[in-house]
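Our consortium's second objective concerns turning raw sequence data into structural hypotheses that experimental partners can test. To show how far this objective has progressed, the report includes one record in full. It was chosen at random from the queue rather than selected for favorable results. The single chain below, 468 residues long, was entered without modification.
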Amino acid sequence: MKNQTTEIKKPVKMGFISKLRNFFETANAWGLFVMGSTFVLMLGSVYLAFILRSDLTEFNVARSTTTIGAIFLNIAIGLFIFKAGFFLFTVYKYFRYKAIESVSDEELPTCTVIVPAYNEGKQVYDTLMSLADSDFPTDKLQLLSIDDGSKDDTWHWMKEAKKVLGDRVTIFQQPKNMGKRHGLYRGFNEGTGEIFVTVDSDSIVDKDTLRNLVSPFVVNENCGAVAGNIRVLNNEKAILPKMLDVSFVMSFEFVRSAESSLNTVLCTPGALAAYRRTAVFNCLEDWINQTFMGQPSDIGEDRAMTNMILKQGYHVLFQRNAYAYTNVPEKYKGLYKMFIRWGRSNVRENIQMSKYVFTNFREGSKVGARLLFLSQSSKIIMSYPFLLFMLFFVLTHPLLFVSSTLASILVLTTFPVLFYAKRYKLKESFWAYSYSILFTFGLFWITPYAIATASRRGWLTRELPENK
C-alpha cells in the first residue's frame, strides 16, 4: 500500500527567467508581502547605511579609544578572521564531499527502524507507511514503533498500521509517558538489526532513503553513525516552514557535507539517523542514564548519542541522498521553544565534547573535529559579550544599528540564497533573507537564554503537537 503523503514533489530544473516568472505567479499574497517587506527593509537600510557611513566610522573610532572598546574590537577582529577562514575551509570541504551510493541488496546489512511517537495522531500512520514502502529488502528490515504514553489517538493509528502491515511492523506501548530517550532505549533493546535507524514519527522518507542511509556502514568499517538529509514537510502554506526549509538545506547539505568530509558530523538528527549496533551498545547505559547538573537528561538524545559515538573513535558521516521530510513549527512560540531545546542540548554536549576532543580519541587526523568544536564553542562563549554590545549599540545609536545590521544581512545571506537556488528552487531561496531578519531581531536571545537555563529539563513542545 502506498500512502499519498509519501508523494513528495522533487524540484524541477528551470532557467533563471522561468524561475523568476514562476515565483511571481505562484507566491500567495501574504508570502509576497513578507518577501517584499524584506527587500524594502534591506535595500532601504543599504541607502541609510551609506548616508550614515561617517557616523559608523566615528562610532568605531570612539569605541577603539577606550580600553574595553579596544579589547572588544580586537576580539571581534580575531573572531572575524577565524570565522572567515573557517568558512573558506568549510567551502573547501563541501566540494570534497560526495555521498556514498547505495550498495547492492546482498551487501545491505540487517536494519531495525525505530519510530518513537507521542501525541502524533494519524501522522505516525503515514510515517510507518512511508517506511514500509521503502525499497529495502523486506527480509532484512525490522520496523518497530513505540507509543510513549500518548494522550491522543496515536496508539489507535499505530494499530491501524499494524492491521495493514501485519508482521512487517511491531508496535509497543509504554506504560506511561517516559520521554523519547526511553522510547528509543526500548527500541534498541528490542531490535535485532546490525544497524539501528531512528525516525521521528512526524517524518516521511523517500523509497531509497533507508538503503542510502545504511550503505556507508558497508563501505566504511569505521563508520559508527550516519545523519540523514532533513527537509521540511509542511512548507506549502505557512511562512515559517518556508524559511526553515532554506535554513535546513544550508545546515544539512552545506554544513554537514563539510563535517562529513572531516568524518565528524556533530549531530545525527532525530528525524533520520542510523547507528552501528555495536557502537550503540558500547554507550547505551551511559546514554540512558546521562545527567546534567544532577538532573536526568531528557532532551538532546540525538546529539548525546552522536557525541558518545564520536568519543569511541568512530566516524560520523552524512548522506545527502537519504531524505526525510519532517514537520516543523508554524508559529513563533513553537519555533523558539524548539530552538531553546536545541540550544540547551548544544551547551551540554559542547561541554561533554571538550572532555575528549583534544585527546587521542581516534586514529587519523583530529584537526577537523577540533576546529568544529572551537567554532561551536566560540558561538556559545561570545554570546553574552555580543549581546551586551548589541544592547549598547541599540541604546546609543538605534538608527545606525538597524541600518548596518540589515545591510550586513543582505550581504552575508546572499550565499545561502545562491546555495539553495543552485540546489533547488529560486523562488524559495529568497526566504533566507526573511529568516535571517527573523533570527537576528526575533531569536537573538535564544543562545544566552539556553546557556542560563541549560540545566532545565523538559521537551517544551511535547504537549503542542501542532507546533512541533
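The partners drew two points from this record. The chain has 19 helices and ten strands. The first strand starts at residue 111 and ends at 117. Both points have been shared with the crystallography group to help prioritize constructs.
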